């Protein structure tokens, strides 16, 4: 026998489950029929999406709210969708260090730009200094090369948020392979 909330609460039985409070489910939530999610709704879960080809064009339907894992030793060039202010979040994890070329994330057009900052811990062998780099006004690309000082080592985390039309908020926490660290931001699109 399935126990239902409406069997215990007359308000739920009459009006359905409506609340202005945060609701957390400790297990799987199933929706039968249409579901509407308003701004601020977060849906998580599922396996990471592999970025194992030379290029990947990210789409909201497939990639928003998911983790995209870089997994190619020769790197992958990722193109974000055009920034329109959707609030969509794209997360990337460096699963395999690119030993040639680099993992690159860039905007879709010549008008979108990136804001934000990247923190790179110097050297993978010991605790080291963290260097931070901010995006300049025209920056639209991030390049994470494995052996270089741009933070392309396994475990690096990058997040890009479509927060306003024409603008991406980008942040990253990663580490370099040692040597002279430099900013991963550039204007190339």
| Number of structurally distinct domains | 1
User: Uncertain segments of ≥5 residues (pLDDT<50)?
Assistant: none
The share of residues in helices is under 10%
Rg (C-alpha, Å): 20 Å
Basic shape: globular
SSE pattern, N- to C-terminal: HEEHEEEEEEEEEE
Q: What is the straight-line distance between the termini?
A: 59 Å
Structural class: mainly beta
Strand content: 25-35%
Number of E-type strands: 12
Spatial ordering of strands, largest sheet: 1-3-5-10-11-7-8
Question: Mind describing the biggest β-sheet?
Answer: 7 strands, mixed
Indicate the mean pLDDT.
83
Q: Count the helices. How many?
A: 2
Description:
There is one protein chain. The protein has one domain (45-186). β7 (113-121) and β8 form a beta hairpin. The protein is 5% helix and 32% strand. The chain is globular, with a radius of gyration of 20 Å. The chain is mainly beta. A seven-stranded mixed sheet has the order 1-3-5-10-11-7-8, with no helix packed on it. Strands 2-4-6-9-12 form a five-stranded mixed sheet, with no helix packed on it. The mean pLDDT is 83.
